[in-house]
Amino acid sequence: xKKLLSYSVVLFVLTVILLLIxxxxxxxxxxxxxxxxxxxxxxxxxxxxxREPLEFAIxxxxxLITTLFRLGINVSTTRNILTNSGSSGQIIKAFGDFILQGNxxxxxxxxxxxxxxxxxxxxxxxxxxxxxxxxxxxxAMPGKQMxxxxxxxxxxxTEQQAKERREKIQRExxxxxxxxxxxxxxxxxxxxxxxxxxxxxxxxxxIGLVQGGASIGEVAVTYxxxxxxxxxxxxxxxxxxxxxxxxxxxxxxAEGSLNEDISKQFTAQPTAIMISGIVVAILTxxxxxxxxxxxxxxxxxxxxxxxxxxxxxxxxxxxxxxxxSGGAGPAGAGAxxxxxxxxxxxxxxxxxxxxxxxxxxxxxxNLLTVEPIEMEFGYSLIPLVDESVGGKLINRxxxxxxxxxxxxxxxxxxxxxxxxxxxxxxxxxxxxxxxxVAKGELLVDYFLALDPxxxxxxxxGIETIEPAYGIPSRWIRPExxxxxEIYGYTVIDPLSVLVTHLSxxxxxxxxxxxxxxxxxxxxxxxxxxxxxxxxEAFPNFINYSLFQKLLTxxxxxxxxxxxxxxxxxxxLESISETGLPVKDVDNLIEHIRTALKRTITRLYCExxxxxxxxxxxxxxxTMVSCLSKGERGYYLALSPDVLQSLINQLTVQLKxxxxxxxxxxxxxxxxxxxxxYRLIDQFxxxxxxxxxxxxxxxxxxxxxxxLTLENTERRGA
Length: 717
Fold this sequence. Notes:
By secondary structure, this protein is α/β, with parallel strands linked by helices. It is 60% helix and 10% strand.
């Protein structure tokens, strides 16, 4: 039985095909017509209650099946009408009698209006929307993929969530591509309906006159009833399916079902409702207008809008109260003071006066504390942070810290969050160890749309620059979000913009946050897994100062320090070979990086391939000859002309990575790697310099550019 049910759709389609061949009695045709109407109504209701199109991803295939079902019914009814003197069941006769009302011409006109309305308005409009949606969905795929990679890199989502989002994007592209073709089926169904109507009417009249011997008036009435009835029982389900098609392709972005969205968005505009009621009331001054009806509608709109406006005013505002006070000291002068500090997830703060707070000398010492990471907010941004009014920033920071610890092996310290009277209402500031390192501005009631390379059409908005990656963008209204995505923009909510900026800043400065105390915590944590290794290494061979230098250097270049055992074992081996004290820390770091080559390769490899910029061998030999020894080791001393030329080449070559999701990588020999990195770090801090020894053997290296000595000499000259 289960096996039979699993093939129910196959059996249904085969039965539909048989309708095209086998004559069916009128009673069975009536049952098929009822099923067709029920199925079409069910599909329409589903499209209005789903939250996103992918919840009904079978719709394109279902569209084909229902169309085939209607065509099969049309063939059966046409056969019965032409062979049974215009009789093809009770439903068709009932529909024909009800519409015609004894007037053949009026009935046919009404039927034609219904058919043309469906064909020219609904079907044609849905076809155009599906075509545009399919094209723009495909165009927007690269931008959406980049947004997913950015969220993944910032720790906002996990690998599994990123995989699910990528699959969803692919399914959306496939869905809209299928819908683009499926709408052509609906269009063809409308054309076929007109043809079937003509065949039934003209063919029936001819058969009635030739074979029946009745008068032309009787024949026309008989076959007109049958034709109009047959056309309507086919067109009503077709109209429902066409409406469902238009409904599902126009719901690209929605927060809930159609009913929820319409209710929420209409009730959020009470002023517009009241103005509409006033305009309707003004229409009563026009002579001949139905005054009573207009006044009833006007009163309903005005009273409804007034009721909604009172209800909105009665709800508590989002900006009432804050869990964050002004910062202690000058930054919070004139505002309440923190007691205790406003850590993430902290409880509401008790407000005291400045004089009372600083009477306790211990509170004065609090002014001397330098926080590892601080974020200050203007007044308008407090709702993003304050959990009492639904702020989600703290939860997002917790997710980012967890993801970063899993990826990099380093736990980000607590982040102090506070409001600041020194910032504009829409500004925020990120500080590392008390000094501002980044600043941005958010419009809480808008969305940020990242400009695509070739937008189909520009969207209206306030031009700006995305703070984390410096991408040209614009702030757009929430109601323009759907259209912006159709045009190819990547749309991001303000909270995600803020968290992405914070995560990028923390990643860039993670090496500064790795304190001696944190080094001890990491070593103690490793001791739980490998106690013998830690006992051997610390402090006899590796002191905490040296270990901090090693881990800081790795973090600065974006290398995870999660594999603590490998790092410690490699350090021990290198020290055993060179002996104590360690004089060449750079060489020790290169050995560690080589031991971590699988981890490093994974960071910059996609589908078994790594795209890199290489260095000409002659240029590298020249650079080796330019190494000079200073008090802290060797450094690269290039002439200003050669250095300028090299930077110009890099500027050109790095642009090739703009269209790629991979971090820019420059490939050098192990001897030159660290020196070249230090040379370009001040110009391009986000570029990674790798040596051949740090790349796994099973990876295919693809060079997309090269730095040459010949070019540098020519440009230097």
